[in-house]
Write a structure and sequence with these properties.
Blueprint: H1 8-21, H2 25-28, H3 30-35, E1 37-39, E2 46-48, H4 49-94, H5 98-113, E3 117-121, E4 135-138, H6 144-147, E5 161-168, E6 174-181, H7 194-211
Antiparallel strand pairs: 1-2, 3-6, 4-5, 5-6
Length: about 210
């Protein structure tokens, strides 16, 4: 009985295994490297194996450079955010009454998050539901009950993304903190909310400090 005929994939796998097991093949037959022709990924012409490898290395270098540039941009932005947070906390500490604290919260976080509007919202029991899971999503998906609380803000039709946080105050009451942006990527549903909860907690602590 003759052996079953191998499929194209099986034959290619055997060739690949043999070449890996015999690394000296191309040293003994260097002319093969010159004779093998592959399709140029950027055109219809045929190129040598060495040229194809150069294309691959160049592409990998471009990807690495892109990743490095992205890391540098994130690093620069993180440094800027850290400086902004320190300045914001200093303003909260220096504030002497509720009006000053509200002003520090709004102006400071507008700068930190680079958003058009940051607004402290009046005490409302609805905000308690946001204590563990703040709203952080496209504005269009914001629940109507919370959209209504933003109706007094100007140009609401221009908002593309929103974050709404709960600030726990004395006597188990909750105020809201809204950040509105015309950038649809500023606040998204897949963003982590731990950082946002920490910020809301710090803002609430400042408000409780001056409440008496």
């Amino acid at each position: 009985m003759s052996a079953p005929e191998l499929s194209q994939d099986e034959q290619e796998a055997l060739v690949a295994q043999w070449l890996k097991a015999c690394p000296g093949f191309f040293e003994r037959h260097a002319e093969v490297l010159q004779e093998v022709r592959l399709k140029d990924p950027n055109s219809d012409r045929a190129i040598s194996l060495q040229e194809r490898q150069m294309h691959l290395l160049r592409s990998q270098n471009q990807e690495l450079n892109a990743r490095l540039n992205e890391m540098l941009r994130f690093g620069s932005r993180n440094d800027k955010t850290q400086v902004g947070m320190v300045a914001w906390l200093q303003k909260l500490i220096e504030a002497q009454d509720t009006q000053q604290v509200n002003s520090a919260i709004e102006s400071g976080l507008s700068s930190v998050f680079e958003v058009e509007v940051c607004k402290v919202l009046p005490i409302d029991s609805a905000f308690e539901a946001l204590l563990e899971r703040p709203i952080c999503q496209p504005f269009a998906k914001c629940p109507d009950v919370f959209k209504e609380k933003l109706a007094h803000l100007q140009a609401k039709d221009d908002w593309q993304s929103v974050a709404i946080l709960a600030m726990p105050l004395e006597q188990n009451r909750f105020a809201g903190l809204a950040l509105l942006s015309k950038d649809g990527e500023r606040f998204t549903e897949d963003m982590g909310v731990f950082y946002l909860r920490q910020i809301a907690g710090l803002a609430a602590a400042a408000l409780r400090r001056v409440a008496g």
